[in-house]
Amino acid sequence: MIRVILLGAGNVAQHLYKAFYKQPAITIVQCYNRKGVRLHPDQNENNVTKNIASIKEADIYIMAVSDDAIKTLSSQLPFTNRLVVHTSGSVPMIAINNSNRQGVFYPLQTFTSDKAVDFAKIPICIEGDQEKDLFLIERLALLLSKKTYQISSAQRNILHVSAVFVNNFTNHLFSIGNDICKENNIPFEILHPLLQETAKKALEINPNKAQTGPAMRNDTKTIARHLKLLSDPSQQEIYQTLTKAIQSKYGKKL
Amino acid sequence: MIRVILLGAGNVAQHLYKAFYKQPAITIVQCYNRKGVRLHPDQNENNVTKNIASIKEADIYIMAVSDDAIKTLSSQLPFTNRLVVHTSGSVPMIAINNSNRQGVFYPLQTFTSDKAVDFAKIPICIEGDQEKDLFLIERLALLLSKKTYQISSAQRNILHVSAVFVNNFTNHLFSIGNDICKENNIPFEILHPLLQETAKKALEINPNKAQTGPAMRNDTKTIARHLKLLSDPSQQEIYQTLTKAIQSKYGKKL
User: Which of the four, A146, A190, B27, B87, has the lowest number of CB atoms within 10 Å?
Assistant: First the structure.
């Protein structure tokens, strides 16, 4: 049995609550957050506190709070030498106040509050300062997902910047595609199968081998025509920057 | 019964051959290509020609050839006033020599020669100069896919540039994510679920509403740290260009 206390009340805290609650091998001893709100309608009010001094004893304290709050909150905890982990992709483990034992429990996915999450499909990146703590964090992670990876703070930083390319920047390209279509009365749905296939391919083969398009072919006529079609300077700049990047990456091989 | 002649021997021609061959309402009268190769191992050699003068009669001639070849090939055809269409996303319909009736039959998907294609899921963009021709092209398209859209040459151009963002540029961002992980001994597989979720979200909600990340939050500390982590100037430039674009797009709303 792993006794867990959840700190925070945001999306990650709520999704973790639901996932932990389902596992017989996990007991959620208590939840702490500044407003003392429940993380789930079924949660017993007695198990929620907004009083940091009344936080109970547990095997692991999970701070599912904003990046900026990790340092302060961890320094305010009214106990020492217990295992405290955060759930952030970009904050180093040692940001946690060293009056307690430090660790990381980072589920790598975008969470939306109203959308159900299947943790079995989510990679969990874990880190622990002490070996016995790392084992406990690993056991907890494996109860949710077999995709559990031991990742250092430095590697987690790299994963985070990589995620910005794969998720945030990719979504911006999708939004440009969507905007251009809308402006010209073309249903963006026409591009949905291509979008799906692009993502599917990247999972099946190395994206370096899947690269196609005017930049890859060095098709200067099409590139010039496309740049003329784009009226938004920001879209033009992105088109030029990415075209140049593709050409310089693969140009050497031509 | 629609009688079809396929011109060309590339990926699109091969995939169209397979798809047409399955349809009882379609007869592939003949295939023409410069080398006289069969498009399928089962194809009867008598139905293949490399002699342009011996092209037979059909209801529709489909030129599945490279963009540059459309103008020349269409001007060499040894007949007039028949329906000739191309399959290109970026060439205007009127590039087809006007000695014949013009049209477009553009399946919007990336084709890989060794990968089976389910045409039922592929949008087909059609265009025709004359109404009766457009009807025939539409009938032919609907036999393969219910996702058939009437799209003008101008709109097709917009779709094509939009597809470059959604497919080619997106794939380059995936390849950067992959490269950064590889260089740091992190399995790119950890990012696969995030990549899938990003694409899935774009199909379910407007990508403008799905935008997240450091640029969106204007999290200058994280942005600065990410830029330091990137050693490749091309990756840095893409990071800066896209961050600026996201900030200027959504900044107004903040």
Answer: A146
Tokens 């840095």 found at: B236
Residues on chain B touching A173 (C-beta within 8 angstroms): 165-166, 169-170, 173
Within the 191-250 window of chain A, which residues sit less than 8 Å (CB to CB) from chain B?
A: 191-199, 201-203, 206-208, 210-216, 222, 225-226, 229-230, 234-235, 237-239, 241-242, 244-246, 248-249
Interface contacts A/B by beta carbons within 8 Å: 290
The CATH 3.40.50.720 portion of chain B extends over 2-151
pLDDT tens track for B44-99: 999 999 999 999 999 999 999 999 999 999 999 999 999 999 999 999 999 999 99
A151–B162 C-beta distance less than 8 A: no
Residue A201: what residue type?
K
- Which CATH class, in words, describes the domain spanning B156-253? mainly alpha
CATH fold group of domain A2-151 = Rossmann fold (3.40.50)
Q: What is the pLDDT of residues B129-173, one digit of tens each?
A: 999 999 999 999 999 999 999 999 999 999 999 999 999 999 999
Q: Class assignment of domain A156-251? A: mainly alpha
DSSP string, B54-98: G----SEEEE---TTHHHHHHHH-S--SSEEEE--SSS-GGGS-T
